[in-house]
Amino acid sequence: MNKKTLQIQYFLFSQYFSDGLRITLGVLLPSLLFALNNKFEVGLTLSLGALCVSIVDTPGPVVHKRNAMLISSFLIFVSAMITGFARMNTYVLGLEVLLFSFFFSMFVVYGNRAAGVGVAPLLVMILMMDNNLTPAQVPFYSCLVLAGGLWYTVLSLLFFQMLPYRAVQQSLGECIHEVAKFLRLRSAFYNPATDIEEDYHQLVTQQVLVNEKQDAVREVLFKSRLLIKESTHTSRLLMLSFVDVVDLYEQITTTHYDYTSLRNKFGRTGILENIEHLIQLIADELDNIGFAIQSNTTYKKHSDLNAYLEQLKYRIDVIGETEKEVSNLPLKKILINLRNLVNRLNDLHSYSSQRYTAKENNRELEYSRFISRQDYSFKIFRDNLTFSSSIFKYSFRVALVCLIGFIVTKTLAYGHHSYWVLLTIIVILKPGFSLTKQRNYERMIGTLAGGLAGVLILFLVKDKTALFVLLLFFMVGTYSFQRINYVISVIFMTPFVLILFKFLGGGELDIVQERIVDTLIGCGIAFAASYFIFPSWESEQLQRNMAGVLRANINYLQILAENLVGKPVQTLDYKLARKEVYVSSANLSASFQRMTSEPKRKQRKSKEVHRFVVLNHILSSYTATLASAILHKERHVYPQEDVRLVKRALAVLSESLKKLEPAQPEAVAEPLITETEKLVNRATTAEDLLLKEQLEFIQKVSTDIRKTTDAILA
Description:
mainly alpha; Methane Monooxygenase Hydroxylase, Chain G, domain 1; 4 domains; 26 helices; 0% strand; globular
């Protein structure tokens, strides 16, 4: 299948497009039905409630979504009631803006879904500011907003009841898609023409996306499974598929070697290009499997990977015979890893083709230990009510900026939709400067481009039916792209708003001018606030994230050490350590990327930090390479010299961790040599020599990490 065609089909079967269709239906249907009965204002109010509640209808366990939507429905009712009466006095309304903006922004302490719950009542407050309601009308209006929220809640839950596995299939398919991208980036290391440093930069960036997708699947799969306590054929297949995808991702990371050395030794033979080509084919097959799972269709193989493996094996054997001065053992290791990748693809193929007879998972993994749990106690809220909390400073900034925006709109009195200024501030202002800067840029570009498109459409299209079709198109586009590409979402949103006001009888050019001016004012206020009012710079978080990566890598390397001394290691403990490495590495990579978009004077030794990120990625990859290989072999004691190499690496990493966290206790205990009397030492083999070489490289990387840490802290 053509890659561009596959990308389009991925989107059409994605959860984002499904969400766009569902939100469009939930928001538009009340207005249409009541408009047919000449009660458009009632329908519009119901649509407002539905729109606010749709904010929290994000992927995740259905119970979490249900609770969030019910809480949002109650909060938008309360917000509508209070705002309806507060708006009768400008000073009281200003006080409400200040208090509500602070209180609901503090919901960020409970995670992303709770943050959406906090945005919903703020949205109602802002949209009701200019609504001329009498005191007698406020309760009825508020009840309509509540009814709209409940209507959307019922609609969303109904979709889940009809298609209970779609959310899992879509999340899993998107996860596989990102893993396939990661694999393609990995293949670039075998291309002698690429820059290894740039390859690493792209790889660690993609690692962030893979981690996000894996966490999303864990949320919707593991938590749903634990909550509904079901074990159907489909659920077991999805569970097995995800476990294999995570293992396959690890297998990809274990195909890690000293690529500079590989290029120097084998670059002239052309074998590296053959390896790159085969990895690209494996990535294509993986992508197609992901689409089959996401679209719930049967997958058919597109390439005979076994034939390519045999050709590669033949080339490697020829090199072994002709290149006597260079051992082809690293190439054989790569071939084994690629063969394992293909075997895992075959397993995924059997699941997606529905030919696999699912049995109870005999691995008995404790899935609950792989998911994070959010504490919703009031103590967390209370503990963050201090200026030492970044969330408190963010909430204080939002409250102050919203009050400034409110005063500006009341002072300038420009146009009839001044609430757009506050809407822009709420949407743009984020806890970190870099995220605010990015959202600011996207909002302005999207509004200007969308405004131009909207004016052209209104000028050229006069037929109301055609305009309504375009309205539907732009609505679906707005809600489909709001979580994956905000600038495209805004480009769709602006024509959608302009066409809507056209149906409501509003002026065309006046609305465009007003929206652009209000957006620019809101963007300017939000951006200035993120820079001057309790700014949050990413460099302040880097040291904590660096320590987290080191701690995870130390734990991961400790497992390797225990293997070397013959100590049995539980598969569950190994996989938990592996997950922690992936999560902490992704957090550090994301933090570094955000720092690079901040002002230069606020960046802290970005070159050294980037080197720290890359070195830790290399360390975890090498550890995974060795640990996964040793885990699947017969347990025995390795030479003491190998154990000492790991001990030295652990000591060096622990020293670096203590420099990053001086107040913390000793980071790691030395590995204990256990059960040596029961295990017999083997004779040294060629693989043992390669193992020693790789352990020496791990020690070298650990030393480089210590030097880089010293340079960052200097």
